[in-house]
Amino acid sequence: MNVRPFRSADREAVIALWELCGLARASNDPGRDIERKQDVQPDLFLVGFDGDVLVATVMAGYEGHRGWVNYLGVDPHHRRKGYGRVMMHAAEEALAGLGAPKVNLQVRSGNDEAVAFYRDLGYEIEERVSLGKRLGSA
């Protein structure tokens, strides 16, 4: 798999992948999320290709305290090939290169397969309460 930063020509394929993976939600406009990421650390938005086919994505960020990972997705037809591991490794390396001492991520409750995947990569469940607040109409 070839991993590289997102390019604008990847937009429609990325959105389709996120929808296929169940990552797109009514509360998040994937197109708007892509636009926002292009304004902030766009080099941390990575895509993975198997030949000419987009098969994986990961969106990372670092605000000076912790690294964060979002939108890790692998096409269901291409799972169990190590692509998710490759994408996470690329994101972790990029975050470490920026000085991030730790990576955090969130998994929707009930997504036991994702939890098992991350635990296998060395992530630990931390007892936290995740809070969120929408700002304006964004």
What's a quick, concise take on this entry?
This protein is an alpha+beta fold. It contains four helices and five strands; from the N terminus they run βααβββαβα. Strands 1-2-3-4-5 form a five-stranded mixed β-sheet.
Largest sheet: 5 strands, mixed
Low-confidence runs: none
The spatial strand order of the largest sheet comes to 1-2-3-4-5
H-E order: EHHEEEHEH
Amount of helix: 25-40%
Shape: globular
Structural class: alpha+beta
Q: Alpha-carbon distance between the termini?
A: 34 Å
- Return the average pLDDT rounded to an integer: 94
Characterize the structure shown:
- This protein has 138 residues and is α+β, with helices and mostly antiparallel strands.
- It has helices spanning 11-21, 30-39, 83-97, 112-120; strands at residues 2-5, 45-50, 53-62, 67-74, 103-105.
- A five-stranded mixed β-sheet has the order 1-2-3-4-5.
- Helix 3 (83-97) links the parallel strand 4 (67-74) and strand 5 (103-105).
- The chain is globular, with a radius of gyration of 15 Å.
- It starts with a strand and ends in an 18-residue tail after the last helix.
Layout of helices and strands:
Layout: E1 2-5, H1 11-21, H2 30-39, E2 45-50, E3 53-62, E4 67-74, H3 83-97, E5 103-105, H4 112-120
Parallel strand pairs: 4-5
Antiparallel strand pairs: 1-2, 2-3, 3-4
Short descriptors:
33% helix; 138 residues; 4 helices; globular; alpha+beta; five-stranded mixed β-sheet
